[in-house]
Write a structure and sequence with these properties.
- By secondary structure, this protein is mostly helical.
- The longest helix has 43 residues.
- The chain has a domain of 155 residues.
- α4 packs antiparallel against α5, α8 runs antiparallel to α9 and α10 runs antiparallel to α11.
């Protein structure tokens, strides 16, 4: 009787969990808007915690340490806003304005290819198949460009919203860093004593994973973005800062990110000359090899404990259900789920 009741309890808990997950999926847009500032706050907390810990070790009060860091960040942000951001915005606007010209250039090149195929002696069915695929690719490219242009019109509203979320996240991060012990004690007080040691060990492992991932991804993105910007400037491709930073940001997506980040740079380089496009591809491949061999393994991958197949599967699933944000968060989510499942199985067995 006791075993039946226990099994029934587990089944009810599993059904309730599945219903909760399904409800979250249905309401993901609304929940995302509410949760996003808190997610940003957690990311900010993980980024700033090592600095806060070092200052605290030097007998600086935690609240004073956080305020001091915020002050330095404010000064850096002000300098960047005055000197760097305007150039970045102007380059981005120029690139967006040139998108129609780039489309026309590719359309002209495509027409040349079509004429060559028409003049060839290939069988008609092969010609028709090629024309069909070329037409489909052109339509997809034009749709993407038009979508980019439409999104750019709402850019100021999104920037204003993002700035509000960032300010709110910084306020939340202040309290997360300042009162981290309070939150830990409050969470543990809700848990039965016999589970506390196991939960403490589990959350320490999760904390180490998230800390390594967030700090490592940011550091890696900055390095890769800087390297790609320099490479594009050396090759002579236009908009090196925008394209380089875009490549660095895309690099945070495992496996697929480098390809996504390279496409815009190669497309812009190809308009200028095939030689620049080839050199751009070579530069990105070299940088990616450096990242794979020296940067990511030391900073991120060795600490997550995920097999490459698991990583690819997680990224594909995250992208399918939650888009770019899902691809970015899929790997740490998979690592956290692995830790929870491992600890749960150990507790049951």
């Amino acid at each position: 009787m006791h075993n039946k009741r226990k099994i029934l309890t587990y089944l009810i808990a599993i059904v309730a969990l599945l219903m909760l997950v399904y409800s979250i999926y249905l309401l993901r847009d609304k929940i995302g808007k509410i949760v996003f500032p808190f997610v940003m706050a957690v990311v900010v907390s993980y980024i700033l915690y090592p600095i806060v810990a070092k200052l605290e070790a030097k007998k600086v009060a935690r609240s004073v340490s956080i305020i001091l860091i915020y002050f330095v960040l404010g000064v850096v942000f002000t300098i960047a806003t005055v000197f760097v951001v305007p150039k970045f915005i102007n380059s981005t606007k120029d690139l967006i304005n040139k998108l129609p010209d780039i489309t026309l250039e590719y359309r002209s090149n495509l027409d040349g290819m079509v004429n060559l195929i028409y003049a060839s002696k290939w069988p008609e069915d092969i010609k028709n198949a090629i024309f069909k695929e070329l037409s489909r690719g052109t339509d997809m490219a034009e749709e993407l460009i038009l979508k980019t242009l439409r999104n750019s019109l709402a850019g100021f509203i999104r920037i204003a919203t993002a700035m509000f979320d960032l300010v709110l996240a910084m306020i939340i991060a202040y309290y997360l860093l300042k009162d981290s012990e309070y939150f830990s004690r409050s969470a543990l007080s809700l848990v039965p004593r016999k589970w506390r040691n196991g939960l403490i060990a589990t959350f320490r492992e999760i904390n180490a994973i998230l800390s390594s991932f967030i700090q490592g991804q940011l550091f890696t993105a900055v390095i890769i973005g800087f390297m790609e910007t320099i490479a594009l400037a050396i090759v002579g491709v236009k908009y090196p800062l925008v394209l380089g930073m875009l490549g660095g940001a895309a690099n945070t997506i495992p496996y697929f990110g480098p390809i996504i980040g390279a496409i815009p740079a190669v497309a812009v380089a190809l308009i200028e000359s095939p030689a620049k496009a080839i050199w751009t591809i070579v530069a990105y491949v070299i940088i990616q090899q450096i990242d794979n061999a020296f940067i990511s393994p030391r900073i991120i991958e060795s600490r997550l404990g995920l097999h490459p197949v698991t990583t690819i599967l997680a990224v594909l699933a995250g992208g399918e259900f939650f888009g770019i944000a899902g691809m970015l968060l899929a790997v740490p989510a998979a690592a956290v789920i692995k830790v929870i499942l491992k600890r749960a199985i150990e507790a049951i067995v």
